[in-house]
Amino acid sequence: MTAITDYLKSVQLKKINEGKDFENSQLGAFVEQEIKADNPPHIAILNVEEERGSIDNQGCSKGGDEIRKYLYRLRKGDFSIRVCDLGTIEAGNSLSDTYFAVKEVVKELVKLKVIPVIIGGSQDITLASYMAYGQLEQTVNLVDIHSSFSLGNTDLPVNSNNYFSKVLLQQPNVLFNYSHLGFQSYFTDQQELKLLDELFFDLHRLGTIKEDIRKSEPVLRNADFVSFNIGAIAQPFAPANRSGSPNGLSGEEACQLARYAGMSDKLSSFGLYEYNPIEDQNGMTAHLIAQMIWYFIDGFYNRKNDFPACNKNEYTRYTVTIDEGKQEIVFYKSPKSDRWWMEVPYSSSFRRRYERHLLLPCDYEDYKIAMENEIPERWFQTHKKLK
Fold it and tell me: Global pTM?
């Protein structure tokens, strides 16, 4: 694993725990600190000390150990655990040097089927993760959880406010879908909203999520990687972010979204960005992020492995005809988890590149919409991409 360790500085877990050994039931007692290629762990935690792409959140590169302090004192759940802490990717001589290191580490971990949990640092680091998938030639779905969009001024160098516009321009283009959870309308440029809508991306307002958090589960079940900006969480729960707002996700909702992400059979990397320890109050935000990672790990160990591992013949199949038989939508219900998917028709030219994205996660509400002779919005958006 020289290719990974060359980019990382190891962490001293005992030092983080004030020189004491962790108790037998604490996460810190189970954490490995190296990866063996012949027996890799399931999840690898690392932090990135990079903030040169941050906009008005200087100090966000230094939160890794503060989060570890709370994370490794949490108690292990009721599951066997294989988690490794790889330590720190330090800032390179240039921002592009840091991106290169992140890209290489994420690429090697994904190849080993180890899920990197990245603690930032500024959210533009997401671009480096995306570049890793480009090198792997793996088409991906990105879910961004934030209070605003990250298109910004494309003429400026990459930063935390415009990183997604750089994703759209990146070559090779391996982005199949982008979903945004938690945007707040008063932070939203209407031209950006219109552009993203015209690209048939999935955009979900904060109010929709708070009305029923379960509506986020199919979105996260469809994710290959997730970028979570701590600014999406309301300041009373997470004060350690200078772009925070009085409104946003609650701590409980943030943990639920992290658990949904961990449960996604497709998901292969997860990033948490923009935590600024300078702005924290009594470690409140660090403790919340630690609990989010705990819930992500818990979600991972509660994966149902019903997609794509499960054969479609094992599902309960429902066929719904719409518009007097002119359109047909096929639904599948998992026998393992009772979760739902829709099949999106596609031409044979798309088969090789997009097949893994065309059994689309949905919920029972989508099935009911189809039964009422209407096409579910998420089916329509995906179908449009394939024209």
Answer: 0.95
